[in-house]
Amino acid sequence: MPLDKAACTTISWSYWEYALALGTSFLRQHPESGFHILVVDGPVEGVEVPAGMEVHWGEDVAGPGFASWCMRYDAMELITSLKAPFLRRLLERYPKVIHLDSDVRVYHRLDTVWDRLETASVVVTPHLVSPLPDHEEPGEGTFLLAADHNSGFIGFRRSEAGIAALEWLAARCRENCYEEPSAGLCTDQKWYNLLPALFPEVHVERSVGLNVAYWNLHERVLSFSGGRWWVNGKEPLVFFHFSGCQNRDRFTKHPSRFDFGNRPEMRALVAGYFEAIEAQAGAGKGRGPKGYRFGFFSNGEPISGLIRRLYSVSPEGLAGGDPFDVRGPFYHFCEERGLLGSEPAALGLNRWNTRHEDWRLRLIRVVFRGVLRMVGAARYGQWLGHLQWITSVRNQAGLFFGDSGGFPERSGEGKLTQSPGSGRVESRAGV
Question: What is the model's pTM?
Answer without folding.
Answer: 0.84
